[in-house]
Amino acid sequence: MVLLAVMGVSGSGKSTVGSHLATKLGWKFYDADDYHPTENIQKMAQGIPLNDQDRIPWLWKLHNILMREELAGQSVILACSALKKMYRRILVSGRDAVNSQSDHLEEQGDSATGKVLFIYLDGPMELIASRLEKRRGHFMARELLQSQFETLEPPSAPENFITATEETHRPKLSWFSKQNEQSSVLFHHL
Ligand SMILES: Nc1ncnc2c1ncn2[C@@H]1O[C@H](COP(=O)(O)OP(=O)(O)O)[C@@H](O)[C@H]1O
Ligand SMILES: O=C(O)[C@H](O)[C@@H](O)[C@H](O)[C@H](O)COP(=O)(O)O
User: Fold this and answer.
1) How many domains does the chain have?
2) Which strands form 76-79's sheet, in the order they lie side by side?
3) Does residue 182 belong to any structural domain of this protein?
4) Rama region for 110: left / alpha / beta (φ>0; ψ in -120 to 50; rest)
5) What's the 16 CA to ligand 1 centre distance in angstroms?
6) How far apart are CA 49 and CA 184, in angstroms?
């Protein structure tokens, strides 16, 4: 059973890569965009970046979904921006991530952080902007890309993550947090 979160800025390819992987692996797929309250969607559509207050309840909801699937023994892929380290902590640990001292969870080591494997879709702003230019019928205002990059805290050790770097249109996996069976399977499909 694997809990996987495909993360990155708007337009980095989370929905595309996440749903592709889920189909290939036969796992359940969730798109975090579908769980934003209307107020968040309206803000983003107006070109107003979300703040922590907007995102935290949304991340709690997503954490609950991941935990429900974990209990059911179901492998899942979640496409979710998860831009800040704190947001990723919430996905992994729910309310504990907000309530406890920020360093406390890290001291707990892998038991908490290892629950969810993040695939970070990294790519240059120009490439992502050019894709958003072409994307139609999506609520996200394109001018928010700048603030998405400003908010982004790329994952770093001891977080449990893989980076897929897009220098070209072909994703390249550049770093494995854990060289194990799961990452080999993912590498094969990306
Ligand atoms: N690897 C890729 N190569 C080319 N285009 C891509 C790639 N990944 C995504 N796209 C296109 O870029 C746009 C944004 O992708 P999307 O999956 O919606 O990103 P996100 O979910 O991160 O916002 C879509 O129009 C999608 O078709
Ligand atoms: O945290 C956020 O600011 C949002 O979640 C944002 O990062 C996300 O990307 C939007 O939901 C837009 O949807 P797309 O990612 O599909 O553009």
Assistant:
1) 1
2) 28-31, 76-79, 3-7, 116-122, 161-165, 172-176
3) no
4) alpha
5) 6
6) 36
CATH number at residue 141: 3.40.50.300
Atom of ligand 2 nearest to the CA of 14: 15
What is the ipTM for the molecules in this complex? 0.92
CA of 128 to the centre of ligand 1 (A): 8
Give residue-wise pLDDT tens across range 11-66: 999 999 999 989 988 999 999 999 999 999 999 999 999 999 999 999 999 999 99
- Ligand 2: residue whose CA is nearest its atom 11: 33
pTM of the model: 0.88
Comparing CA positions, the residue from 33, 26, 19, 20 lying closest to residue 2 is: 26
Which structural domain range is residue 136 located in? 3-166
Is residue 81 a part of any domain in this protein? yes
